[in-house]
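Please decode residue identities from the backbone states below.
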């Protein structure tokens, strides 16, 4: 465990990050970072379309409607207005519902934290918000989020409970604070309020296949708006979020791979969030994607029929333990939540179906005899030499006739070294639109595509929200 010199809360790196959030200008951001942000926002909106009908989203949307309240912001897809925090809650659940939002190599989920909150916050700004303002608010929150997780090695220490709601709420709070025009001190207080309200509870919800993996995004989005509004009213939060004495985040961490310098190093010059952001081609845990691609590619290249398979061995990074453990749940999923994070189920399904989308996570498919039989033929090992979290995994497939084939998928589609094109993301958008909870007109969906691809010239972002509601 590393030791740190005493740092007064008022000198905490959170203050430098809050300054970045409040003072960054759109003109300060490189064009390639803007392009990454536009694509990520469009991708998350695509995911929200399908997420609107998935698992607990309809129940939560209905419950929030029943609660009612001041009609400030629209719940996306469903269309009715609620208090901004409640609309953000519903939007947040939809954004994570199908587990198909972007993932950063060093920092886990990013855009599905702050975009649901930002879209709800549009209802309380009190003036038209331009696309450039929206992009800037998104980018500063995403950057704070990625630097936070990267600095404490969160993606490689998920067993500890990180990252989770703590990081996501900070991400959304930074973005909402910027959109609402909070001062530096108000923004810092809002971050402290958010920090105080969210715990570190990441791994257990996945291990048990619970729906909290989706619902936590609702809590983060809700908190971000409440924190910003409270800070505007003068409510204070702790300022020593990261290194302040006596109990900043780094003073609790029990491992050595901690790099607090990443919080502020080259801040405003180097945009870490854009350097490692991957978009997802499959609606399931990112730790399964390299396995999926390698399985499908190998079977297509060799013309293999799944019924001819004797056994499959999968070799992945150390982080893949979270999709193969605990063994009882991962080899015997009974619910959609369990299947989304079960590598044995997902590899077996990819081999049988040749694809992975929402239809493959129906209870009928999860409990099918052929899928369960093939799962018994699958084994896993973790190779510490695999340097990337999510890519470069290998499939070894042995057929009943004794032939053995091996295939490694170095970079799954969506990785920064194998990026999705606008055409790829548009295809994903249309695919997701088939699962809307409430139908939208084709012209509306076409307008959403135009607005997202030209986000930097949009004069009023409320037009996007209007086209995302009936």
């Amino acid at each position: 465990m590393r030791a740190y010199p005493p740092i007064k809360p008022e000198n905490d790196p959170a203050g430098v990050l809050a300054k970045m959030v409040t003072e960054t200008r759109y003109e300060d951001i490189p064009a390639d970072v803007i392009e990454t942000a536009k694509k990520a926002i469009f991708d998350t909106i695509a995911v929200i379309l399908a997420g609107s009908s998935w698992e607990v989203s309809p129940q939560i949307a209905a419950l929030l409607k029943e609660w009612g309240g001041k009609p400030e912001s629209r719940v996306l897809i469903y269309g009715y207005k609620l208090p901004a925090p409640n609309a953000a809650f519903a939007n947040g659940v939809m954004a994570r519902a199908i587990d198909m939002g972007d993932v950063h190599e060093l920092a886990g989920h990013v855009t599905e934290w702050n975009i649901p909150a930002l879209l709800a916050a549009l209802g309380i700004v009190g003036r038209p918000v331009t696309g450039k303002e929206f992009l800037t608010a998104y980018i500063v929150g995403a950057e704070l989020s990625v630097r936070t997780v990267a600095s404490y090695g969160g993606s490689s220490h998920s067993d500890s409970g990180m990252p989770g709601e703590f990081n996501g709420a900070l991400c959304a709070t930074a973005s909402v604070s910027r959109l609402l025009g909070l001062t530096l001190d108000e923004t810092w207080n809002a971050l402290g309020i958010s920090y105080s309200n969210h715990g570190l509870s990441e791994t257990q919800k996945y291990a048990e296949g619970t729906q909290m993996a989706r619902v936590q995004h609702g809590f983060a989005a809700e908190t971000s708006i409440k924190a910003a509004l409270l800070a505007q009213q003068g409510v204070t939060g702790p300022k020593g979020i990261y290194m302040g004495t006596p109990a900043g985040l780094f003073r609790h961490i029990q491992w050595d791979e901690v790099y607090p310098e990443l919080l502020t190093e080259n801040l405003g010059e180097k945009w870490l969030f854009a350097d490692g952001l991957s978009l997802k081609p499959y609606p399931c845990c990112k730790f399964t994607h390299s396995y999926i691609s390698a399985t499908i590619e190998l079977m297509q290249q060799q013309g293999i029929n799944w019924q001819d398979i004797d056994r499959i061995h999968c070799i992945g990074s150390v982080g893949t333990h979270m999709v193969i453990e605990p063994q009882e749940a991962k080899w015997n999923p009974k619910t959609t939540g369990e299947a989304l994070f079960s590598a044995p189920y997902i590899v077996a399904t990819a081999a049988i179906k040749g694809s992975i989308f929402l239809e493959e996570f129906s209870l009928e498919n999860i409990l099918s005899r052929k899928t369960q039989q093939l799962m018994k033929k699958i084994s896993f090992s973790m190779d510490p030499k695999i340097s990337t979290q999510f890519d470069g995994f290998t499939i070894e497939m042995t057929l009943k006739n004794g032939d053995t084939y091996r295939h490694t998928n170095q970079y799954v589609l969506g990785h920064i070294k194998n990026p999705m094109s606008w055409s790829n993301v548009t295809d994903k958008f249309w695919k997701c639109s088939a699962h809307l909870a409430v139908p939208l007109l084709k012209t509306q969906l076409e307008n959403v595509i135009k607005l997202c691809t030209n986000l930097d010239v949009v004069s009023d972002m409320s037009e996007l929200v209007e086209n995302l509601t009936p």
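Observation: The longest helix spans residues 31-51.
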